[in-house]
Structure formats: structure tokens, C-alpha cells
């Protein structure tokens, strides 16, 4: 059994103020004008209703205007989340009614910026709304993933808000059939390596990573630079995934 946090909301606020290898969230917001927050789409049970309110509140208290915050649904190649489904995904009526929320559309070429290629020749196309934001924040859920080793972190960026050509290259034989493209494997995993190259090509990205138990209760939350934040959550998840 996974131990769960006694106060989920308080734990999230504490994580935002005690980051891994980055300034605190209020410090990150200083002198920034625009913020883009990535959230997973409806196919992932991320506790957005717990994460988004303290995250947005802290940004606003630090001087970011609500109209300059964008929540971008990282759909990958999935359909958009709209209407009541989007409200359910956000998990907070206050956030739903006051913050701009948009979907990623992977097939819209003009909506993406071209950042070249990874070392394995995967094209890097990323949603311009995320790339152009002064402060880039990803939120996600860390659990075993049959290709990427673990979900969360870098995976929310790519394939989450990547161009279709990037996503399709993730699913070719040299990735899918590699012996390290499997649950709970990061070392030597070609998909994980490509994802790391992609996020590094974008620049500074920060992330809230969560781990939940089988009843969707929060067991761990981390915040900070996207790579150490993800690895800290992976280290916790590993104890309950093997």
C-alpha cells in the first residue's frame, strides 16, 4: 500500500515553495508576463482540481495577471476536451471560469515551432503557445508507461504538445520494438532519451509531478526543474510499481 499525504492541498503549496533545482514559484514569476501551464487530457487521471488552484493563486499573488495565464490541454494526437468534459478535467469551477483554457491541435502545422531534430532524427515541433510563454510549467502524473518507462514530466511536453510528425516518429519500430522501451525503464530507453533532448531544446521548463494510489489519493507531489522534479516522483513511484 502507498502512504498518502494527510493534506493534499497543503502538500502542493509546500512543493511550490520548496522546489527541486529551481527558484520557488513566486520567484520564477518575478518579471514574467505570460505563463503557459500544460495539463494532461481527459485520458489521464491527474488531480488538476488539487494542483491548479494553488498554482494559479501563487502566480497571481506574484504579480501575473489572470488574462496572461494560459492552461493548455496537452492532447497529443487525441481529440480536444471541450464543454462539460473540459470542466471535469479542470476540476475547479473557479479556474474554469476565470482562466483561459485551450486545446493543443497536433495536426495544425502553423501552430508549431520547428526546433530541428533529435540525435535519432526525430523532428522537434512544439506548440508555439507553450514555447513563446515567459514561464513554462508542465503538470502531470507519474506512473509506469509501456513505452516511456514512466509517464509525467517530459512526456507532457512531447508528445503532449508536439507536432504530429514528432508524435508519429515516437511510434516507429525502432522505438516501439526496442528492448528498453518498456514499463519502469528509463536508462537506455530511446523514447525517454528523445523526450529529454526535446525539452532541453525548448529551454527552461518547470513541472508539478504527482503520484496517486489506486483510489486516486495523492501520495507524492514534486515541483521544480522538469527533469529533477520528474525523477524525484519516479523514485517514489518505483517503490510501488515493481
Describe the structure.
The model has no long low-confidence stretch (mean pLDDT 96). This protein has helices spanning 8-17, 25-29, 48-61, 83-90, 93-98, 128-132, 154-157, 164-170, 173-176, 190-202, 226-241; strands at 35-40, 69-74, 100-103, 112-117, 123-127, 135-141, 144-145, 149-150, 206-212, 218-225. By secondary structure, it is of the alpha/beta class. β9 and β10 form a beta hairpin. The chain has 11 helices and 10 strands. The strands form 3 sheets. A 6-stranded mixed sheet has the order 3-2-1-6-9-10, with helices on both faces. The chain has a two-stranded antiparallel ribbon with strand order 4-5. It is globular, with a radius of gyration of 17 Å.
Descriptive keywords:
single chain; 242 residues; alpha/beta; 6-stranded mixed β-sheet; two-stranded antiparallel sheet
Helix proportion:
25-40%
Low-confidence stretches: none
| Largest beta sheet: strand ordering | 3-2-1-6-9-10
Average pLDDT score: 96
N-to-C span: 12 Å
Topology:
Elements: H1 8-17, H2 25-29, E1 35-40, H3 48-61, E2 69-74, H4 83-90, H5 93-98, E3 100-103, E4 112-117, E5 123-127, H6 128-132, E6 135-141, E7 144-145, E8 149-150, H7 154-157, H8 164-170, H9 173-176, H10 190-202, E9 206-212, E10 218-225, H11 226-241
Parallel strand pairs: 1-2, 1-6, 2-3, 6-9
Antiparallel strand pairs: 4-5, 7-8, 9-10
Helix pairs in contact: 1-3
Could you give a quick summary of the protein structure above?
The chain has helices at 8-17, 25-29, 48-61, 83-90, 93-98, 128-132, 154-157, 164-170, 173-176, 190-202, 226-241, and strands at residues 35-40, 69-74, 100-103, 112-117, 123-127, 135-141, 144-145, 149-150, 206-212, 218-225.
Amino acid at each position: 500500500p502507498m502512504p498518502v499525504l494527510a493534506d493534499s492541498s497543503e502538500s502542493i503549496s509546500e512543493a511550490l515553495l520548496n522546489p527541486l533545482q529551481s527558484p520557488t514559484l513566486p520567484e520564477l514569476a518575478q518579471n514574467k508576463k505570460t505563463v503557459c501551464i500544460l495539463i494532461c487530457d481527459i485520458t489521464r487521471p491527474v488531480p488538476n482540481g488539487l494542483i491548479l488552484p494553488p498554482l494559479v493563486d501563487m502566480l497571481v499573488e506574484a504579480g501575473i495577471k489572470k488574462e496572461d495565464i494560459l492552461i493548455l490541454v496537452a492532447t497529443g494526437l487525441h481529440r480536444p476536451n471541450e464543454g462539460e468534459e473540459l470542466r471535469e478535467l479542470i476540476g475547479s469551477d473557479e479556474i474554469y471560469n476565470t482562466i483561459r483554457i485551450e486545446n493543443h491541435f497536433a495536426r495544425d502545422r502553423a501552430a508549431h515551432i520547428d526546433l530541428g531534430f533529435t540525435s535519432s532524427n526525430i523532428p522537434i515541433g512544439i506548440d508555439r503557445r507553450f514555447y513563446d510563454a515567459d514561464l513554462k510549467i508542465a503538470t502531470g502524473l507519474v506512473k509506469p508507461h509501456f513505452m516511456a518507462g514512466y509517464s509525467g514530466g517530459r512526456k507532457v511536453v512531447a508528445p503532449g504538445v508536439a507536432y504530429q510528425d514528432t508524435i508519429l516518429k515516437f511510434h516507429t519500430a525502432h522505438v516501439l520494438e526496442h528492448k528498453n522501451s518498456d514499463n519502469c525503464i528509463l536508462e537506455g530507453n530511446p523514447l525517454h532519451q528523445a523526450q529529454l533532448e526535446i525539452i532541453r531544446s525548448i529551454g527552461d521548463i518547470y513541472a508539478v509531478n504527482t503520484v496517486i494510489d489506486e483510489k486516486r489519493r495523492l501520495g507524492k507531489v514534486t515541483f521544480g526543474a522538469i527533469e529533477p522534479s520528474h525523477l524525484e516522483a519516479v523514485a517514489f513511484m518505483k517503490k510501488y510499481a515493481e
